[in-house]
Amino acid sequence: MAQIYEHNLWGGDKYEYYSGLGSHHPDLVNSYIALVSSFLKEFETPPVVCDLGCGDFNIGKELVEHSQKYIAVDIVPELIAHNKKTFKTENLEFHSLDIAKENLPLGDCVILRQVLQHLSNTEIKCVIEKLYNYKYVILTEHLPEGNFEPNKDIISGQGIRLKKQSGVNLLASPFNFKVKEEKQLLSIKSPGFKGVVVTTLYKVN
Fold this sequence. Notes:
Radius of gyration: 16 Å
Largest sheet: 7 strands, mixed
Structural class: alpha/beta
CATH class: Alpha Beta
CATH topology: Rossmann fold
CATH superfamily: Vaccinia Virus protein VP39
Strand order of the largest sheet: 3-2-1-4-5-7-6
Shape: globular
Mean pLDDT: 90
Low-confidence stretches: 1-15
Number of strands: 7
Distance between the termini: 31 Å
Helix content: 10-25%
CATH architecture: 3-Layer(aba) Sandwich
């Protein structure tokens, strides 16, 4: 993933950390921030939020104020070092972690925004095992429009399952994520790309 930022494979200027249109296009970003902010503000006590795959933090920076603590995680050490210098708030932490291989921070709510779509099924399974430690999961995935066969396997990296007319569905085989409630919060046609960007809220515990 480091090469994506090193070579600006998702756009942005040279030497700029840029996580792609999914984190910057107003049609995708504005409604998402409004919706997730509203959800976080419903808590009587502000929740501890774990943002797994925080990227360039263009979205996360708008959500920090609605949390007791906001823990932002990404696999790219240079990106996390940049974010630490750029974004400084008392209740904000950054950690460089491989979410498939390492222990995750404790918290109430997990945000996974267009992250799992880049991982192999084996890595997604490893992540899912750790999601049972949280009460809520807010998952955003880029999916084909209409019916599709979920969870076709890919090699982890820049690409996603859309080119295989597939997408991640955590409740389907081989993941079979067990949740108490599932609610689709948002579905937006992807600007400039095929498919739709879907955000789903899972109540886990």
